[in-house]
Amino acid sequence: MYECNLERDRKYEDYFECYAYNAKNNAGQAMCVGINAIGGGFYDCTNNIVWSIEFYVASKKKRGFEPLKQTGKDGIKTLIWAKNCIKDFIEKKCKSGDLFIVCWEDVKRKRVYAYGLKDLGFQFGTYEKKPCLLKKIN
Predict the structure, then answer these.
(1) pLDDT tens digits along 11-63
(2) Given CA atoms 21, 54, 85, 73 in this order, what sign does their dihedral have?
(3) Cα–Cα distance list, 93 to 6, 40, 57, 87, 97 (Å)
């Protein structure tokens, strides 16, 4: 399985707090799980951070995320790696009261994310009127 190495993403450091897990899968594709503080690093009214999680697989890293394009060639191993990265981040960086948000682009991704993240405690909800998966850290 692939390693989960947390890195601080410094390119947006002046604007908000963001972290990334980067790796290459067996097909030589770049994988990235990005975890960003929403609202430019501002906290919600209870002084807790709201984190947004993004995940993509790309054949060329310079292209980055490509909306509605299926690029992953390593199947379930890549999704398990992303889930392990989320677990790792929760253990290392989160405090009680933080909120995680995972959004999707299409119904296929919605079903996959909901199934894969349910044992981590993610549930359907809305954030700023947008449907998403939510997890509040206790």
Answers:
(1) 666 667 889 999 988 888 888 898 988 864 445 566 678 899 988 888 765 55
(2) negative
(3) 10, 17, 24, 10, 12
